[in-house]
Amino acid sequence: MSSIFFGRPWLAALMFLCAPAAAGAQPFPGAEPAASATVEAPAEPAAEWRIHAERVELHLPVPAYCEFEAWATDEAWTLRVRSEQTPCGLVGFTDPVLGTASVEPLTTGGFTLRLPWRHWCPVEVGPDDRGGLRVLVRKVYEVTTVRELAPGVAYEQRRKADADGPLVAHVLRLDPRVPGLEVQPVIARDGFAARETVSSMARRRGAVAAINGSYFSPRTGEPLGLLMVNGELVSAPLFHRSAVALGGLRPKIGATALGFRLALPTGETYDLDGLNQPRGLNRLVLYTSRYGPRTATAAGGREWVLDRQGVVLASGEADSPIPADGRVLSAHGQAADWLAKRLKPGTRVKLTMPLAEQWPEARHVVGGGPLLLERGNVRITAEREQFRPDVALGRAPRTALGITADGSLLLVAVDGRQPRHSLGLTLEGLAQLLRSLGAAEALNLDGGGSTVMTVGDTPVSRPSDGTERPVNNALLVVVRGEGMAGTPAWRP
């Protein structure tokens, strides 16, 4: 809200000599009766609207001395002027973006002008060269503000509007050359299938900033797709979807596959079907302590409890306890029959995974998808990665990660589904935005109502649900502590 005072630029006085007869008074002796006449009052100065496709200009011929204040909300822009008179011509203006102007007089003198706009627009108000006020409203615009949060971390807010409507995007630019600066995933406080708001996760980890991370089940809360935190594999890839590897020498984006293989001392191998997920028919699934205290499987299968080195400690049929430093192999049908003939207490098995060879230096891996950019070109792989229409089609709130040619990271959150604030983006539009920001590679992450960005633990984006949605995991921007140095080995 702002106030400006104008001094008195000029004062013109017109003086008329007139002697109206008082009641009961007589004319001068010998004078002829005066002829009657009607004198029109001077017209009020008129406001002038100039309407263009990209902007609207308003001239307010405010006389003499005035004070004004202006403010904006998502619903309207309001100007309050205290002056000796109200210009005519304000009422009746209408515009597809700015709506229909309304004016209310002030009891203390002056008026309030209100524009119930379709969405926020930048407005400039100030004196003009005609001795009045000039109001400039930009309907087509792009405004960027930048704030440094920490060495190597900058936050950008980008607001723009065109004929389609408004768009608000939030960008974190991270310089990987700054020592100790890292982007790392964190899981909700209460475990594998828990949910927590991004602001809460940022608060308890002291993050510089944060965004929401990978997909998760809206029914159970479990992560969907590849997730590795500080070298520990939490969940497995899904449908060969794309993921980003972090914490190594340089972030990388690529397609993934489970590729888990169980190798026996005899040289025989068997491919696993899943990690930390419900076991289906004729499937072999590995459970770690991340999943919970027990496998929670139903009767009808076979299970083998392994220690940290992969040695079989015991066997059972279902719902086996998972050692804090061990794992459980759970099999059904053909997989159970095959393993039952080969595993017994004391047998040592080995688990291999091609992803460990694909990204051996990675500390963290976060799955998402689809791919957005590859070598600077738009390449959206929604069909290949088997994404449903609710992700692949239409405008929506979006979260994404990009990598520039020099290895810098871009974390992006786009507000959406709020016509007065931001419409959101299609995947194509998101890819174009990432490319305009300088990304050469880019990956879509979980979006919709999950999309949020925080600076510290304060949300700077506007979640489409109206409030933050609790999610399974988030990506935090942190300064790495001494205890996190080095790259842990992959460990399923």
Report on the structure:
The chain is mainly beta and 492 residues long. A hairpin with a 5-residue loop joins strand 25 (301-306) and strand 26 (312-316). The radius of gyration is 34 Å and the shape is elongated. The protein starts with a strand and ends in a 13-residue tail after the last strand. The relative contact order is 0.14. Mean pLDDT is 88; it is low at 1-39 and 482-487.
Low-pLDDT stretches are 1-39, 482-487
Rg is 34 Å
- What value does the average pLDDT take? 88
Percent range for β-strand residues? 35-45%
Strand tally is 37
**Main sheet strand line-up:** 12-13-14-33-32-34-30-31
The computed structural class is mainly beta
| Spatial separation of the terminal alpha carbons | 57 Å
What oligomeric assembly is this protein in? single chain
Count of separate DSSP helical elements: 5
The main pleated sheet reads as:
8 strands, antiparallel
